[in-house]
Amino acid sequence: MTHMLEERHDPEPLERRPEARTFKVEDLLAELRLGRVRIPPFQRGIRWKWQDAAKFFDSLYRGYPVGTLLFWETGAEPADVHFGSVHISAQARTDALWVVDGQQRLVSLARVMLAPEPNLDDFALYFDLDQRSFVRPPEDLTEDPSRWLPMTEVLDSERLMQWAFEHVTNNSVRRERAFTLGRRIRDYEIPAYLVRTTREETLREVFGRTNSSGVSLSQTEVFDALHSARGPVRPATLGQIVSALEALDFGRVEEKLLYRLLRTLRGLDVIERADDGPRHLSEAEALAAYRETAETAERVIQFFRADAGIPRYELLPYKKPFVLLGKFFKHYPNPRPRSRDLLARWVWRGALNGAHRGDTVSTRASLERIVSGSEDTSVQRLLELVKARPRALPDAADPFNFRHATSKLQALALLDLKPRDLESGAPIGLDLLAGPQEQVLSMPAITERDSGALAKSVANRLLHPKGPGLRRLLVEVVDPVILASHGISEDAIEALRRDDIDGFFAARARVLRNHFDRFFARHARWNEPDRPSLAALMVDDEEV
Question: Whole-angstrom Cα distance, residue 130 to residue 111?
Fold first, then answer.
């Protein structure tokens, strides 16, 4: 199979060789405090944790190599620069040092050594003068305060001497270790290259080569790094697209999925191969690609919500349809109502029979079903992929796990009952069902009692805000409308009131099983004809 690939370009050489030099830690942080060190927008966010910062400082302390920094020396506008809890009001400069490689190390230096208070920053570290190790702030500093040296006291030799005078005057071993730490950290010389070029494209080429091997950046991060805009134009990164789409109240779409969509819209292989290397677009091409991805993703989201009846990204049983629909909407941004109706069936059928469970090969094959010039042909070819009926539908007795497609389908069916609050009887909106970070809905267990297989099924789950005494609240409900909104019959609630847990589960499972079958049939519409629109079936009189 042949895939469109973007043309390789011959990168421009640097006007002059990079300057190789070293920075002492204290000099580097002095430049940072003056606002000379800047983080360009094409850099990724902070990935290091405090443990990584501790290992970095331990390497400085022991004199181990810590890698080379790479700076782009060029102009910078006035800006408020943030390194964790460290805020710097930077003035305009002609010699700013924009960090190309070394962001995690520089940010760690700033957050550990320049924080306004010893324990204020999440990266806060202390040096254990007995164990000679870098640790988190001790829980009780009053027990032996002279043992723990805050790293915020180390950069300034006078501050360190004052701390030693107050804490370790009578302990020569700890005092000497504190001074040794200060000398080793302040005087450590970190090698660096300074690149001077007026061409940002060349700088991005350097960045791409620095980060296109190993495990330093993900594919989406490299793409953003090479193509994000330094100016105010938006969207200028995949992350900005994610944030903009959140305004649609559909949830947080993953950057990696948007990157696959972007590649598909540009005619590239949906999955970037390891040997592809970073792609290079002109600034205009990059902005157009970001804009097209954002607009197409918005059309896909509107389709899922309005046509397919899937209100949130996290409720998508499978993610493959997102990219496929994106390609369809690229060719047919305003499809006919009949096409939208048939595509909704396609979404549900593929979710129920597993056809949307996509690996790379099946995703590529599915994308080839969508052709330009014939909306109806594309729809019919997609429907052919999902024509097989599933041997079994999601059942109320199946084990419930929200990470699995079957359980997401069950959750969608429960939402269709329009659940009501057990106390007030008011409808429960998605905004009230915010669950843990890994899932979109709060679906707490009615009882924690393990009384058989159904205790692990959806029959023991309730679409309801979490709170104490859920079972007690349920037993006290007498309004049949509220009970029905949770798929609970009179037989089921009476069993729960008798403390017959197994009877409650069995009765509720019967109700839910019937509802699930009707709900899935209503969306998949297996028994209805999938004929194209009437417009596609009409024959032009001139062709007869």
Answer: 24
Contact 297, 333 (CB under 8 A): no
> DSSP letter string over 422-473?
TTT--B--GGG----TT-SS---BS-----SGGGGBGGGB--S---TTHHHH
Decide if 235 contacts 291 (C-beta within 8 A).
yes
Residues 412 and 23: their CA atoms lie apart, in Å, by 58
DSSP E strand stretches across 86-172 = 86-90, 93-101, 126-128, 133-135, 148-150
Distance of CA 418 to the CA centre of its chain: 29
Residues 27, 109: contact at Cβ < 8 Å? no
Q: Is the peptide bond before 235 cis (omega within 30 degrees of 0)?
A: yes
Candidates 307, 301, 389; CA nearest to 344 is 307
Q: How far apart are CA 96 and CA 416, in angstroms?
A: 57
Instruction: Report residue 471 as tokens.
Output: 């079972």
Distance CA 99, CA 97 (A): 6
Asked whether 253 and 323 are in contact (CB, 8 A), the reply is no
Pairing between β-strand 19-24 and β-strand 148-150 as defined by DSSP bridges: unpaired
CA atoms within 13 A on the CB side of 192: 26
Residue 454 tokens read as 């159904």
pLDDT grade, residue 205 (50/70/90)? low
**Contact 111/121 with Cβ under 8 angstroms?**
yes
Chain segment 285-330, per-residue pLDDT in tens: 888 899 999 999 999 999 999 999 999 999 999 999 999 999 999 9
State residue 202's pLDDT score. Answer: 64
Average pLDDT over residues 126-133: 95
Give the pLDDT confidence score for residue 538 in this predicted structure.
58
Alpha carbons 474 and 387: distance in angstroms, whole number: 41
Query: Could you tell me if 226 and 208 are in contact, meaning their C-beta atoms sit under 8 angstroms apart?
Result: yes
- Six-digit token string for 414: 């429960």
